[in-house]
Design goal:
Number of helices: 7
Number of strands: 11
Structural class: alpha+beta
CATH topology of the largest domain: Pdz3 Domain
Radius of gyration: 29 Å
Helix content: 10-25%
Largest sheet: 4 strands, antiparallel
CATH superfamily of the largest domain: PDZ domain
Distance between the termini: 103 Å
Length: 287
């Protein structure tokens, strides 16, 4: 008598997992559309896992950093509880407080108008070269920052007009602020006790006097040379030192090939006559 089919010969019904392998594969979950505008609503969990690199646009169409306080995400309840309208950079006082609450120090907002000679502040880095920070190391008594009265030497700049500068090199920040296409600037700073001691330079207390009324008659060969700033600056290198004829000062040491200065045939010479174009000291740059 022929043997019947054994247990191993019987066909087994496929499981649901095997059916999905043999049949059409399930479609992968589609990623959520990215919110390219700031001030959206989200949960706290989304805020922790959100990608914070790159830029977004505020409701007013201004491009800001994703990491800016103007782009901080809030719950429905937080939005309803905020009586303040967002400014062009997406800022409200409550959003700024939420963004920097983890610092556990006082955060201040200062709105400055850019004057003819800047805003009257000098910036410096951290004296510990392993730490990146941007400190205000001096405030010109005749500048707009002093008149506005909020900023103080030792304040660390967190962001300006939606651009985050926390943890950045102060040299880059100086040029970035000067290159911003605004006449009004909102500085967000954090204030810590004795933070001025962390600055790479001593507190700046002496500021240059304005160009009008300066007497350069003591110098020989004084020139006024207007230089139109190019894409990469003025195209000169400068050093601090002493000159046999004019004494201590800041001097042009080199002219960049193809730069703005070379185009007007600027030669190595003393710098007093360029004072009206920009001011610079050995360790810091005014903004």
């Amino acid at each position: 008598m022929a043997d019947g089919p054994g247990p191993s010969d019987k066909k087994r019904a496929p499981t649901s997992r095997e059916s999905s392998r043999d049949g059409e594969k399930p479609k992968a979950a589609q990623p959520k559309p990215e919110n390219k505008y700031s001030s959206g609503e989200s949960s706290e969990e989304e805020e922790d896992t959100r990608e914070l690199e790159g830029n977004v646009y505020t409701k007013n169409g201004v491009e800001i950093s994703r990491r800016s306080a103007g782009n901080v995400k809030r719950t429905k309840e937080e939005i309803a509880a905020d009586p303040e309208e967002e400014d062009e950079f997406g800022y409200t006082e409550m959003k700024i407080r939420k963004k920097y609450a983890n610092l556990k120090k006082r955060v201040f907002v200062s709105k400055l108008e850019k004057g003819r000679s800047g805003m009257g502040i000098s910036l410096a880095g951290h004296k510990d070269r392993n730490k990146m920070a941007v400190f205000i190391c001096g405030i010109d008594p005749s500048g707009t920052a002093a008149k506005e009265g909020i900023l103080q030497p030792g304040d660390e700049i967190l962001e300006v007009n939606g651009t985050v500068f926390q943890g950045r090199c102060h040299l880059n920040v100086t040029s970035m602020i000067k290159g911003m296409p605004f006449t009004s600037f909102k500085f967000i700073v954090v204030r810590r006790p004795d933070a001025i001691q962390s600055c790479a330079v001593p507190q700046v207390t002496v500021f240059p006097t304005p160009l009008p009324g300066e007497d350069y008659s003591q110098f020989k060969g004084v020139h006024l040379v207007p230089i139109k700033k190019g894409t990469y600056g003025l195209g000169i290198m400068i050093i601090e030192g002493k000159h046999a004829e004019v004494g201590h000062g800041i001097f042009v040491s080199d002219v960049q090939e193809g730069g703005a200065a070379e185009q007007i045939k600027l030669e190595n010479s003393a710098l007093p006559w360029l004072k009206g174009l920009f001011e610079m000291t050995y360790e810091h740059k005014p903004s």
